Task: structure prediction
Amino acid sequence: MYDAFQIGPFTLQYYLIVVLFSFLVTYYLIESLIKASFVKQFILKHFWTAALLIVMTYKFSIVLFRPDLLLTFSWLYLSGGQDGFYLGLVLSIIYLYWVGKKEKISVKVFIYSIMIMIFSYLVVYQLIKIIVLSFV
Result:
């Protein structure tokens, strides 16, 4: 799954393509399958911000976990790993809670929204990963 292919000077890992494609498919899945409601409106409004927060934290959390790499340029090519992903997930949930509190969303709606986003993403990610691994 961590194989990569090269397009000119850029090397793209299959893993990152699967993650980004999973975010995209999850967004459109939520948009098409959930009926119009306050939950859907909240999810669609803040989905990409939360996804970007997860990806950026995942990519740059290596600086938090291995600060000795700051003196080299090799930290640009690394990622935060599983710890970075979980840190990004926690930060995005905190962000969504903060936004939900500003928009006066109830805790029930907030938890329901988070569960829908995470479950949808995990199902889509696993399906896409299986499809990609069967061809690679």
